[in-house]
Design a protein that fits this description.
The structure holds two protein chains of two kinds. Chain A is mostly helical. Chain A has a domain of about 230 residues. Chain A is about 75% helix and about 0% strand. Chain A is built from 16 helices and two strands. In chain A, a hairpin with a 2-residue loop joins strand 1 and strand 2. Chain A is globular. By secondary structure, chain B is an all-alpha fold. Chain B has eleven helices and two strands. A two-stranded antiparallel sheet of chain B has the order 1-2. In chain B, strand 1 and strand 2 form a beta hairpin. Chain B is globular. Classes of the chains: A mainly alpha, B mainly alpha. Chains A and B meet through helix 6, helix 12 and helix 14 of A and helix 4, helix 9 and helix 11 of B.
């Protein structure tokens, strides 16, 4: 266990990539592995804001949905059938949305922030719901083609689940290394300072408001990439991608895994999706069980699965990235 | 655009008052609980939903709307008290995020639990027979039940104000919101006051639910939808400010009602536009003080 932990601690980003390279071959069906990967990225985006900056957003569905619609509209409505253009459009839409919503939501602190992010996400949901000519409305955005990836001389059809998994893994790997760089940079240290004591960070002369907004936009961009990948994965964008329950999923996954830990979002996404997968066979009311489990975690295991494991192994609290720096 | 007649406009304004009244009910409870305990109760909407379902159940059981109107809020309030005692109490001192997260989980669980018991399809809750017709107010006719809702809202709010301003317990509640440490030092058991206020706020949510049932429909997601509107009210009014909750609640109710009349497509969106404007012009809310409750 300790040896394993040392390896994980020394090479956190590589560990995640290796794990997800093996995962599709050990789970009952490959689609589940890809889903864990994409939703793990979603939770990772949320975790940058909540776990590392200390801002609880209840509206990350907005950026997931913007990413999904951005990619989906490029492919299905405009007809730009390039994977890269679609992804770029999705990520940009999420980042711009994050900048605008962040500008408004960051005018208030604390609990207001959670309420505002929730409200703005719901606003986008209603807009998407009513703009059926662009978004497909209640029926969802359909007609996203399965694409072939042109990489130098190779033609890789993404319709094949294994191909898609490794394509998504490559992008998630880039995102993970980017997050690692952000957290290890001086900017990352300021994020931690804001999380621990916003007033003191301000007193130290940091432009707290701007740092928060930049963190918000980064978080939205990661989340948007997850949304765009999800649109490619299921070739449809349901309007529920923007619904509050999607925001709730990011919150639940991150807290189950461990907020403010590097692996937590992926552990949480895996736990959530496997639970959902198993429970859905038994009962339609699986969200009831997940809701109760989530409540138990908030009450008794606030550090989440991974955070608690970390604390057990070497007694430090929560943040594994600090140990790795 | 429809023909604008004075009586139609008046009817719309009255409807706004009804919608606003429901929001005021919820937002004052939310604000009261937050002001005293620092708990943002995400499940407030789902307890409102529970009030509507309990009301439906009790009405069927007792065959009396009035019995349901009184017992359902008490049941919801009791449920709230149990939740405070068994769960939320453990989180005091952990900061405002944890109670918010816990009640979010509770909200999720309640929505599904209600679907398990009463089914996925919404219920129809009619106004009681005595209040089914319309009342002629001279310049227009208005549904009697809606007038009843306005009256109940007014009575409960005046009652709440009298309780907070004129009773000794109300004095302790206000003092406890301002300086809990000092109140404790004076030998007052704040835990019991918190429990009382929590139960009261939740019972008000339950009452709002059974009142809103015939107006807005009874379905499992009704609570989460209205809690988002309540959050907007709280942002506009200023959290912890009861006058703010009342003014903002009525304002949002009127804006929604008038938008339904003049530009129905914008009904769901206009609430958020009001919020964005207030954030730009007065970030701390209409009645909020900058820096309070942050």
């Amino acid at each position: 266990m300790r040896v394993l932990y040392r390896v994980l601690a020394a090479y956190p980003s590589v560990s995640i990539v290796v794990f997800f390279a093996i995962l599709p071959f050990v789970v009952p069906y490959k689609a589940l592995a890809t889903q864990v990967l994409v939703y793990g990225l979603f939770a990772l985006g949320f975790n940058l804001l909540y776990g590392y900056t200390g801002l609880l957003s209840f509206g990350h569905a907005a950026y997931f949905g913007l990413g999904a619609y951005g990619a989906g509209i490029a492919l299905a409505k405009i007809g730009w059938t390039s994977v890269w253009v679609a992804l770029a459009l999705g990520v940009s839409a999420a980042a711009v949305g994050g900048a605008i919503i962040g500008f408004f939501a960051l005018r208030r602190r604390g609990i207001y922030f959670a309420m505002l992010t929730l409200a703005f996400a719901q606003l986008l949901y209603f807009v998407a719901f009513h703009m059926a000519s662009v978004t497909g409305g209640d029926d969802g955005l359909r007609g996203i083609p399965t694409l072939t990836l042109g990489l130098l001389a190779w033609r890789i059809p993404l319709g094949n689940p294994t191909n898609f998994h490794f394509f998504a893994l490559a992008l998630v790997a880039v995102a993970i290394f980017a997050l690692r760089r952000i957290l290890d940079s001086p900017f990352g240290a300021v994020l931690a300072a804001i999380r621990e004591n916003t007033d003191r960070a301000q007193a130290c002369g940091y432009d707290v408001q701007r740092v928060k907004l930049v963190s918000f936009v980064f978080s939205a961009a990661f989340t948007g990439l997850a949304g765009a990948l999800d649109a490619l994965r299921i070739t449809v964008v349901p309007v529920e991608a923007l619904y509050w329950s999607t925001s709730g999923q990011a919150v639940i996954m991150t807290l189950l895994g461990g907020a403010g830990t590097f692996f937590g979002p992926f552990v949480g996404a895996g736990t959530f999706l496997v639970l959902q997968d198993r429970l859905a066979i038994v009962t339609e009311a699986w969200p009831l069980v997940i809701g109760l489990i989530f409540m138990a975690f908030v009450l008794f295991l606030p550090q989440g699965i991974w955070g608690t494991l970390l604390a057990r192994i070497d007694g430090h609290h929560g943040d594994d990235s600090a140990a790795q720096a | 655009m429809p023909d604008i007649t004075l009586s139609a406009l008046a009817a719309q304004l009255f409807t706004g008052l009804v919608l606003g009244g429901i929001l005021v009910f919820l937002a004052t409870g939310l604000s009261l609980i937050f002001g005293l305990m620092g708990v943002v109760n995400f499940a407030h909407g789902s307890l409102y939903m529970l009030g509507a379902y309990f009301g439906f159940f009790l009405w069927g059981l007792t065959r009396s709307y009035w019995a349901a109107l009184i017992i359902a809020p008490l049941m919801v309030g009791l449920f709230g008290v149990i939740v405070e005692r068994t769960m939320i109490r453990r989180l005091y001192g952990r900061g405002p995020d944890d109670p918010l997260l816990l009640t979010f989980g509770l909200s999720l669980a309640l929505v599904e639990a209600v679907k398990l018991v009463w089914g996925k399809v919404g219920l129809v809750l009619d106004p009681p027979a005595q209040l089914a017709g319309a009342v002629d107010l001279g310049f227009m006719k208005f549904p009697a039940f809606r007038l009843f809702v306005i009256a109940v809202t007014a009575v409960v709010l005046v009652g709440l104000w009298l309780f907070l301003e004129k009773t000794n317990v109300g004095l302790i509640v206000r003092a406890g919101a301002r300086d809990p440490l000092m109140v404790r030092a004076l030998g007052i058991d704040l835990g019991r006051v918190w429990l009382l206020v929590f139960g009261l706020g939740i019972a008000m949510a339950g009452l709002a639910g059974i009142l809103a049932g015939p107006l807005r429909g009874v379905y499992a997601e009704m609570g989460v939808e209205i809690i988002i509107e309540c959050f907007v009210v709280v942002v506009v009014g200023g959290m912890g400010s009861l006058p703010g909750a009342v003014v903002a609640g009525l304002l949002i109710g009127e804006v929604v009602s008038l938008t339904t009349y003049f530009a129905p497509k914008l009904t769901e969106i206009v609430v958020f536009l009001v919020m964005a404007v207030v954030l730009l012009v007065r970030p701390s809310g209409l009645f909020g003080e900058p820096g309070l409750a942050e």
